[in-house]
Design a protein that fits this description.
- This protein has 168 residues and is of the alpha/beta class.
- It is 32% helix and 18% strand.
- It contains seven helices and seven strands.
- The strands form two sheets. A five-stranded mixed sheet has the order 5-4-3-6-7. A two-stranded antiparallel sheet has the order 1-2.
- The longest helix is centred in the N-terminal third of the chain and has 17 residues, at 2-18.
Length: 168
Amino acid sequence: MRNLSITLLLTFCTSTFLFAQLAPGSTAPDFTITDTDGVTHNLYDILDEGKPVLLDLFATWCGPCWSFSETGVFDQFDELYGANGDNSAFTMAIESDPSTPISELTSSELGDWTSIIHYPLANDDQIGDTYSLEFYPTIYLICPDRRVQEIGQGPAGSSGYWTVQTLA
């Protein structure tokens, strides 16, 4: 019986890690995506320009995702460091739930995502699997060396801006 318990415990622990988010420091999988403005972006091409990529993977039905987007933290980051700023970084939001149609970006029950996200926005049904998503929002910083680090929104009650500020 003891051996069975140990076997079950090891199986549970091992299977839990099989479905984990990308490990810190792992290589970010490459992707090419077309945003809602029809512009195509390739992750590795952007990284090869020496720009870090701030990647917001969200779902249109996700209340915390909406609340985080409403803070405008990534809009502020993009205005300082993205295409609208000094162009030293790249910011992108991707609706990552494969069960959500692209039409939900403009007409979700939470609102119009295109009205609160002012940097590149896309919908992709495969990126959730590619990036091993377990929850929304998942926010990654991908460095030019292609290493990935998951970042958070900051402690409860904060706007999360402190986390994004430290990236610059």
